Amino acid sequence: MSTLRPKDSDAVLSALRKVRNDTGLPTVFAGEADGETARLTRFIGVRTDSMQGLAVAKGRGLGGHVMASGRPATVRDYEDCSNITRDYAVAVEREGLRAIISVPVMVSGVARTILYGSARVATQLGDQVTKTFSSVAAELASEFQVRDEVDRRLRMADLAAAEHCGGLESTDREQLRVLHGELRAIAAELGDPALRERLLAAGSALAGVGREVGDPSSVRTQSVLSPREIDVLAQVALGCSNAEVGARLSLSPETIKAYLRNIGTKLGTRSRMESVARARLLGVLP
């Protein structure tokens, strides 16, 4: 993540202030998410610390429900609701919350943040409340997308500065990288093993374009990295975030993180950028 990027938590807190002001709900809070878990860290109007740091899992409770569905949801009375699981009832009831709305902030199909609003009495939160929360969530999603794109371009600039293009023009090398990443993403979705192997072989051939013939280092490295690890690294090389890589390869962001940790261990690298640069130097990536 770029050090120039403003803190996402500040944007979340600003969004909470807006929905509280526009809806009049006394209590609002949020959890920054990775698509699988949302950890509640931002609160306005709470009376206890019962929910501080609470980890809400996908599919569990009201927040987990909207994380899975990608759509807003409300409950009239949390103490008497049979439509959601009761995993977090103790913490919520200690705070005295009754009517609750939960809205996901979706970026590239993944919940990045969950926004909540609540009243301390059982009541039907109307369409206007849902509309206000959804509007603020959409604005926050757009803000995150802009920040992600800035980060992606900065990563691409850093990678370009960290490597040699092996005699090819930078535009030609970039076209090779995009094609290489697309081939591996398509291959990952195929059910035909023979066709998948043909696409992977084509991608490997692209990785060697413009490099010296007969260099055994790339062969050794490809045998160290699994095909799936190369798939992940090929998408990261295009500047994709973990969520974007996961969406392309039908994997969760947490799984992508695990792959990147393994790749770093195998290549002796300490960051995404260093792993990509090392793989390019060894001829695994174009």
Descriptive terms for the model:
286 residues, alpha+beta, Beta-Lactamase, Arc Repressor Mutant, subunit A, 2 domains, six-stranded antiparallel β-sheet, 14% strand, elongated
How would you write the strand order of the largest sheet? 3-2-1-6-5-4
Question: What best-fitting shape do the alpha-carbon axes yield?
Answer: elongated
**Tell me, what is the CATH class of the largest domain?**
Alpha Beta
What kind of sheet is the major sheet?
6 strands, antiparallel
Topology record:
Blueprint: H1 8-23, E1 27-33, E2 37-44, E3 55-57, H2 61-69, E4 73-75, H3 89-95, E5 99-107, E6 110-119, H4 127-162, H5 170-189, H6 193-207, H7 217-224, H8 227-236, H9 242-249, H10 253-267, H11 272-281
Antiparallel strand pairs: 1-2, 1-6, 2-3, 4-5, 5-6
Explain what you see.
This protein is α+β, with helices and mostly antiparallel strands and 286 residues long. It folds into 2 domains: 8-150, Beta-Lactamase (2-Layer Sandwich); 163-281, Arc Repressor Mutant, subunit A, CATH 1.10.10. 54% of the residues lie in helices and 14% in strands. It is built from 11 helices and 6 strands. Strands 3-2-1-6-5-4 form a 6-stranded antiparallel sheet. Helix 5 packs antiparallel against helix 6 (193-207), helix 5 crosses helix 8 (227-236) and helix 8 crosses helix 9 (242-249). The longest helix has 36 residues, at 127-162. The radius of gyration is 23 Å and the shape is elongated. It starts with 7 loop residues before the first helix and ends in a 5-residue tail after the last helix. The relative contact order is 0.11. The model is unreliable at 216-220 (pLDDT under 50).
